Every structure is written in structure tokens, then in C-alpha cells.
Amino acid sequence: MPSASKLPYSPSWSRFADNFQRDLKVWLVFMAALSVCRAAIIFIFCDRMDPDSGVGTALVAMANGTRFDAPVATAWLLPPFLASIASGFLDMPRIAATVRKVVAAIFFPVTFFLGIVTYGFFKEFNDQFNHFILNAIYDDIGAALATVWKEHPVIWASAGLVAGSVALYLGTTRLAEKLNVSRQRLERLTSVGKGPSLCGCRGLPH
After folding, report:
1. Fewer CB within 10 A of the terminal residue: the chain, N end or C end?
2. pTM given for the model
3. 148-190 pLDDT, tens per residue?
């Protein structure tokens, strides 16, 4: 049986806060990516808006959209956040960073792919998603894919999706590595005056 000194259990508020601020940065980037996709759809199809609509209407639509984007971005960040919580108890500094990178690597291509699908669907049916989506179940998939290949620049769209996803992934991971508050300062903040910790307890390791 391993000795207690070799166990990775080592509670640390500063280690959790270190990872949490990284998660927060990634969440903001996810929110920005979702907002850009919505803004692109509004801009591309602005000619289909009601003639009485203007910039104010588009801004209201964007603001309302954030109510849906926030839960989506939060759901994506749930695994990294749970890993950050675990990092506050276990001295395994890379686990939270690894989970964060994996989620980011999946988020961007999935988000941009759905954005492209939304563009094509809206262009065809003047709506984001409705009952016509069921046609994908009953129609000839091969014929549908052939139509998409003929009518849309699939290669260029795929290349753009990959390039955009890679660029944003690299930018996001680099941003997450840059801390606004250093671990040393976090340790000082959680131990000033030897007062109660964030959970109202005394003596919790930093």
C-alpha cells in the first residue's frame, strides 16, 4: 500500500483558482465564437428581414441569443470545470489543462460545422431548423449528399472550417496559458491574515 506522502491528494485553493480563471477565459472565447456564428447568419440574410427592421432589431436578436449561448458554452466547459475542481484536491496540474484542450479541440469544429449547416438550411427553408430536417431521415442520403456537393463549395468550406478551428484552438490554448493572477498572488490572497478560507474554514491548505 502506498504511503500517505505519495498520494496525490493535496488540497489547494490557489491551484483551483489558477485553473478556474483559465476556464473562464475559454468560456468567454466560446461565447464569442457562438456570437460570431449568429452575427454571420444575421448579416448574410439581412435582406430577408422585415423592411421595418434595422440595426436595433439585429442587436436585440444578438442580445437574446446570448441567453441561449451562455448555457451552451457552460455545458461545453463543464468537463474542464470539474477537472479544475479535481485539481484543487489532487496535485495533478496537467489534468485540467488536458481536459480543457480536448474540449476546445472538439468545440470549434463542431460549432463551425453546425454554423455551416445552419447557413445551408436557412438559405433553403428560410428558417434555422424545422420539420424539414426530418427529410434527412427519409430521403436518399446519397442523393442529398450529391446535391450538396454540386451546389455548395464543400472543399473550400471544409478547408475554412479546419483552418478556422485550428487557429482558434491554438489561440484559445495560448490565451488560457496566460494568467491574469499568478499562483503566488493567489496563494497570498487566500492566506492574508490567516483568516477564514473561501468556504468559511480555517487552516485549509493553500
Report:
1. N
2. 0.74
3. 667 667 777 778 888 888 888 888 888 888 766 666 666 666 5
| 3 state SS of 90 | strand
In a domain, 201, yes or no: no
Place of cell 434555422: 128
Nearest 5°: phi and psi at 130?
-145, -160
Judge whether 190 and 182 are in contact, CB under 8 Å. Answer: no
How buried is 87 (Cβ within 10 angstroms: 0-12 exposed, 13-18 middle, 19+ buried)? buried
Contact 30, 110 (CB under 8 A): no
5 lies in some domain: no
3-state secondary structure of 21: helix
Distance CA 196, CA 190 (A): 9
Written as nine digits, the cell of 146 is 450529391
Domain of residue 16: give its range.
Answer: 11-185
Q: Which residue has the cell 447557413?
A: 119
Instruction: Please state the domain count of the chain.
Output: 1
Q: How many whole angstroms separate alpha carbon 165 and alpha carbon 140? A: 30
